[in-house]
Write a structure and sequence with these properties.
3 helices; Histone, subunit A; two-stranded antiparallel ribbon; about 40% helix; 2 strands; mainly alpha; flat
Amino acid sequence: MSINKQDVQKIAHLARLALTEEDADQYQNSLSSVLSLVEQMQSVDTDGVEPLSNPLEMTQRLRDDVVTEDNQRDAFLANAPQSEAGLFLVPKVID
């Protein structure tokens, strides 16, 4: 699959990128080669291949889920200009 220059310019516009004509040509070639590689990979027969989630078949060591910090909500709320019922009060920004 190849991509044309208009598609490259449209993608650049959507991504808010400014491209010169030389850059557009270069990206057209690069994106076309990536898409052809994806097509080539999709043509590989993967029937009967089990998904591999961990190449070493090991389980990860996980640390205990314990609280390491004290509750400092009151100290943080003391610095707030306005608070109510344990919440920060902020000005309304959307009407």
